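Example record used in the benchmark description.
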Amino acid sequence: TLFRSTVNKIITAGRIPFVVGGGNDQSAPNGRALLSAALGGASTGKAKVAIINIDAHLDVRPPLAGGLVHSGTPFRELLDDSRFDGNNFAEFACQGQVCSDEQVKYLQGKGGKCIWLGSLRANYASADIAFKELLDSYPKDTKIFVSFDIDSVCGADCPGVSAPGVVGLSSQEALNICKIAGEHPNVCLVDLSELNPAVEDYRSPRLAVFMFYYFLMGVAKRRQLLLSQK
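Model output (structure tokens):
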């Protein structure tokens, strides 16, 4: 599709796309664009790609009748892609009360893992610390796609989403995560999904803008470090 090919061209040119939506269904073509770029355009082989879905939900539901995909299917589509190794897939800050056992078993069967919000709260002072650990856990030649569904942010901080949550990441954690993603040399693609101004059109869009700003600060720090090493 035009969307996928445009993202692929940006990645191939050595740039870092930050794609803002809209429905989470955008994440499937975004992920395919990175898989294709990582394989040099080849349609076969295993790409050295990791995908992190920051989301209250798992988004691995099956398509509807007739194969119709939707905002709940993108990561099932990517896990079913023969070019992607499911062992490099992680769900981050997911919430058990909105995820089914069937979905958990499916993604674990594909090699993926769940890093639950409850576990983050029990074991870390802040979720961004765990996010940095996760990024650093992948081999240095891995290209990382960070997909950020902002309904993972607590509805008190970010109400303007398709499915506001009563618990979730704080807005400060979301900003810190975006800065860390920008800084990390392996992050090649970021998308932000489920912003819905029809629900709330002031605080939530401002948070999305600040998330992009923090990501850019991280990218600037990344490039500054590269220049200092030359």
